[in-house]
Amino acid sequence: MIKRANLLKIVSAVVLCSAWEIAGRIPVSYAFPTFLDSMRSFFEMIGNGMMLEAYKETLQPLVIGVLISAFLGIGLGLWIGLNNFFDWLFSPIFIVMQAAPLAALIPLLVLAYGIGLTSKVMVVCIMAMPVIVLNTSGAVRNTPESFKEMGKSFLASRASILLRIIIPAASPVIFAGLRLGVSAGFIGAILAELKITPTGVGDIITYSRSIADYPSMYAAIFSIILLAVLFLNLIEKLETVLFKGNQRGYVSD
Amino acid sequence: MAMSQINHKTTEKNSTDIGSAVSVQNISKNYGDVEALRDMSLEFPRGQLTSLLGPSGCGKTTLLKIIAGLLEPTSGHVEVNGINVSGPGPDRAFVFQDFALLPWATVLKNVAFGLQMRGVAASEREAIAERYIKSVGLAGFENSYPHELSGGMRQRVGLARALSVDADVLLMDEPFSAVDEQTRRKFQEDLLSLVRDENKTFIFVTHSIEEAVYVSDQIAILLPRPSRVSEIIRPSSFRNKGVDNIRRDSEYLDIVDNIWSSLRTYVE
């Protein structure tokens, strides 16, 4: 079974890369390089250390922003989900944040926080946090009532109900939010580098576009997608380790 | 052997001085303008099984949850062993209609949950849980997850969890309504031996007339609008005739018929 799932992943990757190669060879656009050309640039940039340099820059706002979004987001989400007053107070902020056209707001952020790391972390957070907060609070609110009653009738304290019932019950949706949030955070990190100051991977994209070195540009885009996929798989592993029985489905639903 | 058991049971059941384990006094419960229960009083004799039977909407689950301490009554009070109930307590354990098993925990962890919340050490609570898992017939399933079990087996886990905390009073909210007919019959027979062997008081909510008459020492018929206890029936003769003979006993059949004729007007 697991072998088959892995096989399917490989097959879909091969199909995607072949489609890319074919589209590049037609070519669908002068600005669209083939898969093999892009890979050549990709390994070149890894070889000459350019990629490493770029990621040293890009990962800073990304990691800081994602960590803040994850911990603060889940914390706030729990709080909002458990308490109607905080729901009323905070939920609208995150709904607005999620719907706001971020690219248009970036000049405002730059005005307030400058062009440094702070602005970029903010962009990552604005992208990543709303979905984490909203998913967490929704999941907490939807904990099956009978689980909570069961906890109460077997004399669980409020803390035990939260830690042993509400959080594990909400964890699949919290992790779904975390996965969406982290992907959005990756988009935010690149967006910040494109819109605020060209550094890191954003710089490779901007620079190679300006000199029409499209293979390098797509190699940079490919690298960020690859990193995001690896990171999302890591989160999935974390979920499996933390909440083993959950992936096996709910009983009462 | 069988004879001596029956004699023992008869004397126990016939003694009139069994006190009440649970006493419900003048309970009212309103949800906003809706009156769920009005001025309800009921005694639950120690060591016996009392059914709360009535059409849907008669407040039987509400009453059970008030006894459990999960709901606050609007007025009136509940005493368990003479002590006023102000919330869930170690003297009561609950069996849920939808089992309420934690899907991420194994059978063993689910059964041990109540003991864990009471602060029993891990090795001790697992030993106790294993014993009760065996006693409900689930030996070998300790490390299974709830979704791997059938509906009947899941409710056995719920029952083992409630038994393992060794509470005086077992509150059962339509425990067999989500399992299939054959499993339910087996459960009902097992419940009878449980009532006989364990020195516990059972409060059993059901909407099945046959089930109530089959398992109960005392049946409280609840009627809706406003909710009240309309009748208390204590089957006398067939309880000692063995599980196989109950369903064809004439008293059993008469009681089932009588209950239906008094309930039928309330069922639309």
Q: How would you describe what is shown here?
A:
The complex is a heterodimer of chains A (253) and B (268). Chain A is mostly helical. Chain A has a single domain (37-245), classed as MetI-like fold, CATH 1.10.3720. Chain A contains ten helices and no strands. Chain A is globular, with a radius of gyration of 21 Å. The model of chain A is unreliable at 249-253 (pLDDT under 50). Chain B is α/β, with parallel strands linked by helices. Chain B has helices at residues 2-14, 60-68, 107-117, 122-135, 151-164, 181-197, 209-215, 250-263; strands at 20-31, 34-45, 49-53, 75-80, 83-84, 92-95, 169-173, 201-206, 218-223, 228-233. In chain B, strand 9 (218-223) and strand 10 (228-233) form a beta hairpin. The chains are: A mainly alpha (253), B alpha/beta (268). Chains A and B meet through helix 7 and helix 8 of A and strand 6 and helix 3 of B.
Concise structural overview:
The complex is a heterodimer of chains A (253) and B (268). By secondary structure, chain A is an all-alpha fold. Chain A has helices spanning 2-25, 35-47, 50-82, 84-99, 102-113, 117-141, 145-153, 158-195, 200-210, 214-242.
Q: Care to count the β-strands of chain A?
A: 0
> What is the CATH H-level superfamily of chain A?
MetI-like
Order of helices and strands of chain B: HEEEHEEEHHHEHEHEEH
N/C terminus separation of chain B? 48 Å
Mean pLDDT of chain B: 85
How large a portion of the residues of chain A is in β-strands, by DSSP E? under 5%
Q: How big is the Rg of chain A?
A: 21 Å
Tell me the structural class of chain B: alpha/beta
Shape of chain B: globular
Number of helices of chain A: 10
Question: Largest protein interface?
Answer: A-B, 27 and 34 residues
Strand content of chain B: 15-25%
Unreliable spans of chain B: 1-17
Q: How many domain modules of chain B?
A: 2
